[in-house]
Write the structure tokens for this entry.
Amino acid sequence: MTLKAKQTFRIVVLVSGRGSNLQAIIDAINAGKLKSQIVGVISNVPKVFALERAEKHKIPTLTLSSKGLANKVYFEELAAAVQMWQPNLIVLAGFMKIVNSDFISLFKNRIINIHPSLLPSFPGLHAQKQALDYGAKITGCTVHFVDEGCDTGPIILQRALDVLPDDDEESLSQRLLQVEHLTLTDAISLLENNKVILQGRKTLLRESL
Ligand code: GRF
């Protein structure tokens, strides 16, 4: 009797810039925390550092700029590129475009995003600055499924972080990044182990990590 080979959990990561969250996933895979494989990285911005990080680890990359393309056409092209890699999961890791509804329906409940605030507080851009300007004493990060709204999808994991009295946007963002990296890789671990059950807009975690 032959044993069935266990299928790898395939991840495509979408990026637009620095790629520290992408690096955290790569490091977690290399450290054995994750069993997933990153099968491709796509950037909508040419020559960003995230692409260098992927190339260094021999991960296939693609740059797909949206310049001059209608949003619908761009997301059709992006979907075709993503489908080529047949992912189980698409991770938006600092991908600075709001994905359209056709793309979301095509990959239903298979797209997650990392956001640098405790949603539903401070969605959208500059979440750390929003928290500081508001005078929040605690902020954090959220990993959530992506739906049609802006940072509104069902929450998978959140982690909190104290805002320090002398924090500015830079210092808070830097500290928060460490928390993001841990939370994103924890969420991927839950997903690759099939421990996230989606019930309406809530998620149930089969067991804690
Ligand atoms: C992170 O703060 C993430 O939460 C937000 O964009 C930033 C991306 O950083 N969505 P990096 O490119 O992963 O370093």
